[in-house]
Write a structure and sequence with these properties.
It comes from Hasllibacter halocynthiae. The chain is mainly alpha-helical. It contains 7 helices and 6 strands; from the N terminus they run αβααβααβαβαββ. It has one domain. The strands form 3 sheets. A two-stranded antiparallel sheet has the order 1-4. A two-stranded antiparallel ribbon has the order 2-3. It has a two-stranded antiparallel ribbon with strand order 5-6.
Length: 140
C-alpha cells in the first residue's frame, strides 16, 4: 500500500510540472481491460497507458526516456523503476513500475479491485485526472 501511495504522489508531482499534457485518460483505466474479462494483463495495461500519452507528456525533451529531472523529486521510485540501472526510464520501465504499484497481490494482472483503485486515480477528482482540454488537473 505504501508503494501505491508513493507512486501516486510521484505521478501527481510529475503531472504538476506538465502544464499541457498530450494525454487521453478521460475513458479511465477500467477500459484497459479490453477483453472485458475482469482483469487487465500487462499487455492490456501497456496498450492503454501508451495510448494515454502520459509517458510522452512527461518526457520534456522528447528523447524517448525519462531522466530523473523529468521524473521529479521521487528518486526512490525512480531507482526502483529503473530496472537496468541506466539512469533513465524507458516507457516499458515506467509502465511496469506503475503496473506493479497497483498489482497489490503481485498476481501479474490487475483484478477488478486493483483496476478500480487505478481508475479512481485517473478519474475526475483523482490524482492524475486529465480534463477535456488535455490539462492534467493536480488540484483535485
Amino acid at each position: 500500500m505504501k508503494t501505491l501511495f508513493a507512486t501516486a504522489a510521484s505521478i501527481a508531482a510529475l503531472a504538476a510540472g506538465v502544464a499541457f499534457a498530450q494525454t487521453d485518460m478521460e475513458t479511465g483505466m477500467m477500459d484497459f481491460d479490453t477483453d472485458a474479462d475482469g482483469i487487465a494483463t500487462m499487455d492490456e495495461f501497456d496498450e492503454g497507458l501508451g495510448t494515454s500519452g502520459l509517458y510522452t507528456s512527461l518526457d520534456a525533451n522528447q528523447d524517448g526516456v525519462l531522466t530523473e529531472d523529468e521524473y521529479g523529486d521521487y528518486s526512490d521510485d525512480f531507482a526502483g523503476y529503473d530496472a537496468d540501472a541506466s539512469g533513465d526510464l524507458t516507457e516499458d520501465e515506467f509502465n511496469r513500475g506503475i503496473f506493479g504499484a497497483y498489482d497489490l497481490d503481485a498476481s501479474g494482472d490487475l483484478d477488478d479491485t486493483e483496476l478500480q483503485t487505478a481508475d479512481a486515480d485517473f478519474a475526475e477528482g483523482g490524482r492524475y485526472y486529465v480534463d477535456s482540454d488535455d490539462v492534467i488537473d493536480t488540484d483535485s
